[in-house]
Amino acid sequence: MWRFILDKKIGLGQPKRIENAKILVANTAMDTDKVKIYGARVRVDSMTKVAQIEGAEKEKMKEKVQKIIGHGINCFVNRQLIYNFPEELFADAGILAIEHADFDGIERLALVTGGEIASTFDNPDSVKLGHCKLIEEIMIGEDKLIHFSGVEMGQACTIVLRGASHHVLDEAERSLQGFYSVVGGLRW
């Protein structure tokens, strides 16, 4: 069975195990969408107006999360941070939300699960979801990692290197790169 490991932890309140995963891999801001104009200021004369602005920002984020949920997913992997409010909405919907995955990691995850990286969510038909048989959190030594097994493309594996020091790990990595160079030059 082909597997992929992502060096992230599952957040609190998130499902720890997902079977028959439908994965939306994204690169989108999941913090409060604020107007980003350099030097702009808003003046309010009461705390009620501040609360109204915060309420409008929260409602806008809720709409964005609902669009994402509307894709019929049970796992959302994002390149950027996911703030507490959207993470809570995903958890309430039973969706595993993984935040701040490194760019190489989400590119590989999209590739091996058969999905594509999305940044807009208005049209669910234009977004290609990834799939795998099982997502679960595993421990290797003292490190928690997210394990994707039964990936769609079936052409991935993860090699986990552990060692007593960075020097040992660097040497092991160089040896693996040498191995890849030799194997890559062979004809099957």
Automatic annotation (TrEMBL):
GO terms for molecular function: ATP binding; ATP-dependent protein folding chaperone. Keywords: ATP-binding, Chaperone, Nucleotide-binding. The keyword 4Fe-4S does not apply. Transmembrane segments: none annotated. SUPFAM superfamilies: GroEL apical domain-like, GroEL-intermediate domain like. The keyword Nucleotide-binding applies. Gene3D superfamilies: GroEL. InterPro entries: Chaperone_TCP-1, Cpn60/GroEL/TCP-1, GroEL-like_apical_dom_sf, TCP-1-like_intermed_sf. Pfam families: Cpn60_TCP1. This is T-complex protein 1 subunit beta. It comes from Asparagus officinalis (Garden asparagus).
